[in-house]
Inverse folding.
């Protein structure tokens, strides 16, 4: 399908599906962002963004190039100061996390060729010296499985090996919040499958909150229980992926008929087409043709 | 399908030549700080003009020198710009590219040769074999971008070769032979443009590695080992082994290693002093050995006179060395912001308050300053009366340098300009001279330096002491 949907009409659905608003007495959300605004040299990137991730959620962050995914993830980790708004991790301001909170975070940045002068083994030894908890058995197993040589300078490793090393480093201290910025971009399909399996194991075993940005939609379908679409500096929609795929429809037909559809159900619109959610096919007027929306359709419409 | 607008072959050829000629200038203009390549020649030219005004009798010599340096520099930029476009893939796949480059190179170097010849004739008259002296230089210029090692040949062989005699013989040779010589030079210039063969590809790959290594060094990133050849790796290892040893020790200690040391390692700053100390051993060991041999050969020579002369260079050298650790920190601090993103998330890392780290850096500088000052005071004490006052004044002026470095590193908003810090030891060596002439005694200078340090330590800097992580470039 080659539909071009302009701005979606739906508001961000904080708390939809697994992303429920925290109630009194519940543990602090892993990530709690309110009204985050951030830009570069006068160009706004994030504009009053609200986002909340509950413990154990796995969220794939989707957005076009330049939408601000990396900026959002960096601001989420307190690496960029917001121009307005509030970012909290585990109930603490992201910019002033204590050591205990920092020990609960794993981060894989977009750039993988970091600390190029160190050998892979030295890098892991370096990071191990800071963390109170370090799963050496897991590190060794992943190193072996992903064939990352320990005695080679990182600058001389291939892009894929550097990426794998970064992922091993981020998983080694068994974080409660794992933030991954395009983590599988440099990996071959087998390594991607392995990495995603590891990610799922993390989530199932330890209840880790995972947020990762990616362009590879098929990977997202394999692991993300939730997807969040970043558009216009805000989270346009966040919902459980299977629920979304089951509920979302692409409806096409004469414009007068489409205009009669309930506004609350319309996620995005373009001439002669609507992306709908929460409407059964049987409820659509005669003359409107509907089909299940794929993740590509959703990506196209909501980012 | 419609065809594009028809272009006459002659117009297309001129357009190609114009594009080849423009490209390096456009590339330079788009670079940050594109004027900097001209800074050296401009300063040199101003110096020559100043000398010409000061010594009108030798004005032609100084003005010719200024013009020749400017021409050589301009020629280098032209040749370098053209040769950057001589890529093996383009040479093999783009019809006419090599020919166009060859024609450009030949025409531009020919013009350069004529201009340099005219300068020399105007300055010194036509009696000497200027053309034949300039010709090997022009050929060398064409080959240098592909074979930078030729510099070494120029430096080593130049004093040994009887260039003047050869040029004089060429000047007096029969016109046929002269024409043959000119044609041979032209053929060598043309041959410098590669055609995409194995040799050309190997040279291009080596050139690319060097460019990456130079860029990494300029940006304050570690030079990737992959970009160094075996010789580069061997030379690097000769100098950086203390740093690697230090790194291994810190990593072996693990969590038991002091946090500032671990943070220095992560920031790519650690081990500077070990490396500097080893560099000083190599440098001053070499100088002392040379002086020792010299002293043995010229027993009884005036040591005082030697110290009087040496103090300028010793002061500039010693304080430049220790200052290099200060400005050598700015580049990595800015260039490693991506690494800092990971460091800032590590438990125990004070990413938002580097006060302890800065105290450690200042303390290290103070210790190095004390060692350097002991050495320069020893040289001063060997010199004539007043020499000690001079070196003490120089030492005092260099003492507050870490505060200037700290000021700069707290306000990093882009790739740092280190010229301010690098030039301070030279300025200090210059300013110490009038202070000596004014009769400022050594203890007073050192006390003033100490007082300045104390006052700066009490000053409140409103800028946060945070890593520059997250700042846009």
């Amino acid at each position: 399908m080659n539909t071009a949907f302009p701005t979606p009409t739906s508001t961000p659905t904080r708390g939809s599906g697994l992303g429920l608003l925290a109630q009194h007495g519940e543990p602090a959300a892993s990530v709690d962002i309110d009204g985050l605004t951030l830009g570069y040299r006068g160009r706004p990137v994030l504009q009053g963004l609200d986002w909340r991730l509950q413990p154990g959620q796995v969220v794939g962050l989707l957005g076009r190039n330049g939408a601000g995914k990396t900026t959002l993830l960096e601001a989420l980790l307190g690496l960029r100061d917001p121009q307005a708004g509030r970012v909290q991790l585990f109930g603490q301001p992201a910019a002033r996390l204590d050591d205990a909170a920092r020990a609960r975070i794993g981060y894989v940045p977009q750039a993988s060729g970091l600390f190029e002068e160190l050998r892979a083994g030295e890098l892991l030894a370096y990071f191990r010296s800071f963390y109170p908890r370090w799963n050496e058995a897991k590190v060794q197993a992943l190193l072996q499985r992903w064939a990352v040589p320990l005695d080679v300078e990182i600058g001389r490793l291939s892009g894929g090996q550097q990426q794998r090393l970064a992922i091993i480093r981020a998983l080694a201290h068994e974080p409660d919040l794992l933030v991954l910025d395009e983590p599988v971009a440099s990996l071959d399909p087998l390594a991607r499958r392995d990495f995603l399996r590891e990610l799922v194991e993390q989530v199932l075993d330890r209840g880790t909150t995972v947020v990762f940005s990616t362009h590879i939609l098929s990977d997202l379908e394999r692991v993300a229980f939730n997807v969040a679409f970043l558009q216009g500096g805000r989270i346009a929609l966040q919902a459980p992926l299977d629920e979304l795929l089951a509920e979302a429809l692409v409806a096409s037909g004469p414009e007068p008929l489409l205009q009669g559809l309930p506004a609350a159900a319309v996620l995005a619109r373009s001439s002669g087409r609507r992306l709908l959610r929460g409407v059964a096919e049987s409820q659509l007027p005669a003359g409107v043709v509907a089909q299940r929306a794929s993740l590509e359709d959703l990506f196209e419409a909501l980012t | 399908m419609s065809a594009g607008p028809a272009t006459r072959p002659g117009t297309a050829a001129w357009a190609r030549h114009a594009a080849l000629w423009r490209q390096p200038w456009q590339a330079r203009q788009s670079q940050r700080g594109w004027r900097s390549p001209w800074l050296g020649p401009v300063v040199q030219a101003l110096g020559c003009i100043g000398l010409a005004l000061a010594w009108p009798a030798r004005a032609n010599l100084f003005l010719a020198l200024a013009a020749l340096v400017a021409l050589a520099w301009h020629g280098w930029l032209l040749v370098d710009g053209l040769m950057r476009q001589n890529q093996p893939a383009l040479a093999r796949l783009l019809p006419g590219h090599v020919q166009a480059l060859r024609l450009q190179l030949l025409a531009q170097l020919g013009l350069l040769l004529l201009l340099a010849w005219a300068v020399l004739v105007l300055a010194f008259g036509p009696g000497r074999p200027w053309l034949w002296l300039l010709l090997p230089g022009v050929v060398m210029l064409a080959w240098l971008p592909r074979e930078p090692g030729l510099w070494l040949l120029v430096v080593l062989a130049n004093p040994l070769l009887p260039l003047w005699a050869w040029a004089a013989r060429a000047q007096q040779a029969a016109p046929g032979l002269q024409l043959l010589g000119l044609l041979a030079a032209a053929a060598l210039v043309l041959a410098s443009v590669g055609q995409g063969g194995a040799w050309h590809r190997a040279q291009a790959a080596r050139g690319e590695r060097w460019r990456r290594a130079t860029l990494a060094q300029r940006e304050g990133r570690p030079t990737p080992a992959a970009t160094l050849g075996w010789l580069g790796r061997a030379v690097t290892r000769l100098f950086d082994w203390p740093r690697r040893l230090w790194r291994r020790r810190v990593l072996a200690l693990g969590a038991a290693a002091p946090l500032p040391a671990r943070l220095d390692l992560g920031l790519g700053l650690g081990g500077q002093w070990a490396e500097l100390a080893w560099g000083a051993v190599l440098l001053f060991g070499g100088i002392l050995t040379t002086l020792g041999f010299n002293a043995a050969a010229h027993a009884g020579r005036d040591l005082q006179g030697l110290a009087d002369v040496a103090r300028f260079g010793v002061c500039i050298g010693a304080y430049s060395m220790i200052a290099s650790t200060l400005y050598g920190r700015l580049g990595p601090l800015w260039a490693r912001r991506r690494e800092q993103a990971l460091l800032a998330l590590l438990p125990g890392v004070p990413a938002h308050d580097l006060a302890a780290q800065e105290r450690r850096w200042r303390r290290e500088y103070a210790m190095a300053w004390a060692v350097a000052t002991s050495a320069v005071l020893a040289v001063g004490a060997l010199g004539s009366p007043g020499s000690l006052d001079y070196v003490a004044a120089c030492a005092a002026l260099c003492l507050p340098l870490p505060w200037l470095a700290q000021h700069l590193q707290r306000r990093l908003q882009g790739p740092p300009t280190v010229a301010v810090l690098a030039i301070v030891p030279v300025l200090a060596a210059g300013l110490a001279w009038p202070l000596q002439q004014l009769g400022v005694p050594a203890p007073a200078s050192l006390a003033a330096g100490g007082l300045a340090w104390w006052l700066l330590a009490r000053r409140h800097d409103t800028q946060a002491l945070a890593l520059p992580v997250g700042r846009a470039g």
